[in-house]
């Protein structure tokens, strides 16, 4: 089994930052910039927070998949030297092709090295509780599962709150009602760790003309081959920031994080 140090020295973090983020456009000040580059009240952005998490564990090489409002991301981060990391950019080939096509394009263009471990992460999926330790455990989990044949490890929580009212119904009558019930179903948090062998799958399964997110194609393929593993993180460690509600949750978590640091 490879060590954490061996993984870190031979890994590229791939951040998907090219989507339209149509639901997020209703947030004041969000128009004209990429969602991951939206300025938070504490002066950070989601993509900077994500990069910092990986950097603080020792990962330094990043590939950014960009398209919509790419200039706002590149202007913010440049080559990464301001954060002490190395950043290369891969632009979708002429039109949006989803994360599947974007990954294939980045691999073929050399932005994502074929021989590296990969961590593919959506920056709007924020890790907010002990992020470096959560990341460390996730990588070690993947290395252990790779010894058992896994090529990918999907990082998950054990369940999520349902966004609507939930009801128990029998014979046309409501027997129970609950606002925002917690649904106990493993949920992918937009973060996946891959062994180097995965690049062949991206090259084989995805085209550069169709818009497809890789999870809908790659995950079933790896599942059928029994090569997709799972690793659970604490439910309260993840916030998905897709709209104003998610943004408010993140801002609150950051405030609590800063308060705890001041008390230490």
Write up this protein.
This protein has helices at 4-9, 46-57, 70-77, 98-109, 131-146, 198-205, 214-224, 244-263; strands at residues 11-17, 61-66, 86-91, 117-121, 125-127, 152-157, 160-161, 165-170, 173-179, 182-183, 187-194, 228-232, 238-240. By secondary structure, it is of the alpha/beta class. The strands form four sheets. It has a seven-stranded mixed beta sheet. The longest helix has 20 residues, at 244-263. 37% of the residues are buried. The model has no long low-confidence stretch (mean pLDDT 93).
How would you summarize this macromolecular structure in one to three sentences?
This protein has helices spanning 4-9, 46-57, 70-77, 98-109, 131-146, 198-205, 214-224, 244-263, and strands at residues 11-17, 61-66, 86-91, 117-121, 125-127, 152-157, 160-161, 165-170, 173-179, 182-183, 187-194, 228-232, 238-240. The protein is an alpha/beta fold.
């Amino acid at each position: 089994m490879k060590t954490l140090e061996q993984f870190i020295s031979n890994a590229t973090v791939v951040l998907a930052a090219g989507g339209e983020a149509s639901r997020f456009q209703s947030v004041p000040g969000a128009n004209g910039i990429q969602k991951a580059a939206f300025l938070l009240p504490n002066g950070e952005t989601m993509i900077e927070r994500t990069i910092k998490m990986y950097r603080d564990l020792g990962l330094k090489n990043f590939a950014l998949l960009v398209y919509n409002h790419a200039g706002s991301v590149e202007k913010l981060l440049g080559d990464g030297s301001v954060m002490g990391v190395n950043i290369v950019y891969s632009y979708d080939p002429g039109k949006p092709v989803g994360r599947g096509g974007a990954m294939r394009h980045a691999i073929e263009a050399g932005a994502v090295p074929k021989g590296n471990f990969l961590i593919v992460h959506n920056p709007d999926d924020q890790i907010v509780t002990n992020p470096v330790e959560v990341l460390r455990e996730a990588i070690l989990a993947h290395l252990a599962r790779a010894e058992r044949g896994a090529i990918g490890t999907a990082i998950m929580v054990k369940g999520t709150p349902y966004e609507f009212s939930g009801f128990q119904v029998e014979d046309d009558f409501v027997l129970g009602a609950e606002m925002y019930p917690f649904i106990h179903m493993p949920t992918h948090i937009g973060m996946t760790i891959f062994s180097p062998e995965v690049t062949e799958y991206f090259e084989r399964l995805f085209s550069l003309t169709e818009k497809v997110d890789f999870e809908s194609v790659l995950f079933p393929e790896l599942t059928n081959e029994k090569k997709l593993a799972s690793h659970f993180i604490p439910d309260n460690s993840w916030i998905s920031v897709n709209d104003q509600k998610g943004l408010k949750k993140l801002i609150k978590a950051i405030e609590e994080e800063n308060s705890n640091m001041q008390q230490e």
